[in-house]
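Troubleshooting log. The previous run stalled partway through. Resubmitting the same two chains, unchanged.
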Amino acid sequence: MASNLFHRDVPWASHLQLESRPEKSFAIDCRPTENAFMSSGKKDGWGSSLGVILAVTGSAVGLGNFLRFPGLAAKYDGAAFLIPYFIALLLVGLPIAWSEWAMGRFGGQRGFNSCPGIFRAIWKSRASPYLGVLGLIVPVVIYMYYLWIESWCLGYALKYLTGSLSLGSEKAAYTDHFSSYVGIAADGAFFHQGLALPVLCLLACVALNFFIIYRGLSGGIEKVCLWGMPLLVLCALFVLIRVLTLGTPDPAHPERNVVAGLAQMWDLRGGVPGLLKSLANAEMWLAAAGQIFFSLSVGFGVIINYASYLKKRDDIALSSTTAVAGNEFCEVSLGGLITIPAAFLFLGAAGAVGGTFGLGFQTLPLVFDRMPAGQLFGFLWFFLLFIAAITSSLSMLQPAIAFFEEGLGLGRRGSVSLLGFITLMGTGIVVWFTKDLAALDAMDFWVGSFGIFVLATIQTLLYGWVLGPKRGREELERGALLPIPRIFDFVIRYVSPVFLMTVFILWLHQSWASNWQAIQTQPSVRIALVFVLAVIILFVLLIAHAVRTWEARERKTA
Amino acid sequence: MSLWGWLILGMAVGGTTGFLAWCLLRVLGNQDKHHLHATTDLDPRQTDREPTD
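Second attempt completed without errors. Output:
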């Protein structure tokens, strides 16, 4: 039914009749609406299937794979955490990833690369492009603070390269160093350092991101990911081999050996009865689902945008599955084997816990200080985190660039400049209000978590109930190099939305109070959120303008 | 580490690594090929025969 509505309502639907023509029509180019909508001349695209796979994997693989996942697994009884983790992968991660790729290419075939345009192509409702605002806001706002974290990784890598991060064997020294590096003591403290390494690294990251994004998809993002992702894995393998060959590094603590370090991460604590007890912990299920969800970058607005640049008969089934597999490899096989065992070897069980920033920027530098050839491996570690971060941050810019190009008719330079201006203001706010990282935390909660949940739910409902399993499956199976199981249609329609909304409600219940209190008590949080609101309003107005432009073009084409 | 621990480690690490390797081999092996899985892919006029002219 949705299909009929779509074809009836769209003036240029007659072009789409080409879709039912035989193979030889496709051989030329079956993207009939492309010229009707693309005002910015040459359309961007991917150079190879491996390129798009690595770009999506690069977008998904970030600090969470190497720091957040091991931290959570260690916190929730090691191996027991993996059961809800893999269940969430099958019920939410993989199905939403498949649906996003399918919706992206569906929209791309109709001349749209941005979330508002793609949502409008799927659902002919006046509200649909405005729902797509989340597909622009989420990546753009996350970019504003993620860029800063990326600059920490670059800064730490450079400090290891020059040997200036050897601060002794006390953890307090590394905690103090991190605090002063990011200026956590007071608002504006980050800039009080003047043009020192932290500020220079931030400026370098801004320049690097916009230089690469300006070069386009195949010339910029794809090239970086084609080189960067293998380099990331190579660096991680070097660090992994180092960790696994450490034996018993401190003879005074024979219990701190590699096998015990692996057990800290992977063993069943308390055997099968302990496992059953752990599985009864609802908080662990919530953490596992959240980890899968955020790790795969689903509901991010990025995959849908990247997939829209694929050609009509490009495979998406195998490509999306490979991207998910790549992310899981980095998370489970690399992150799971490196971080916690390394921390355990030198600091014991008490030291092998912590959140992303605690483990990454305070615990591990201490570990590298005690590790033989720690300077080299410290550099490799923070360099791989930097690669993981930059391949993610690049992907966050592309959805808005695509919207500016197709919605406002801006060229690459204009789009990059406008987005550069908006994101610099946001990053400026995050970097100024550094006290207790309040602005960063606020944006991360309201956009980087809340916004992602809402967008993922909208996308799941759009795929399952508006595009429908039939058209969705047609899209997934066209050119597919991997059969998608039939049960996926049921899962994405019923199981994923229910699972997603249950986790969302539980998560909100758990985190709402503290974040709401932060709004009431911290002016810096309010300023950050007012800025986010202003950006949302700006994008809504731009979408209204884009919709008018698209409608005018459709009338002209008709 | 207990036998359970080694088993879980082997399954998780081996599984994700093997799955990625399998996917990558399929991607690299199909770079220039086109596989048909969907009814929408099938062209009734196309056959596997070589052109006769």
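Takeaways: The interface with chain A takes residues 1-2, 4-6, 8-9, 12-13, 16-17, 19-20, 23-24, 26-28, 30-31, 34-35, 37-41, 43-46 of chain B (CB under 8 Å). Residues 34-53 of chain B have pLDDT under 50 and may be disordered.
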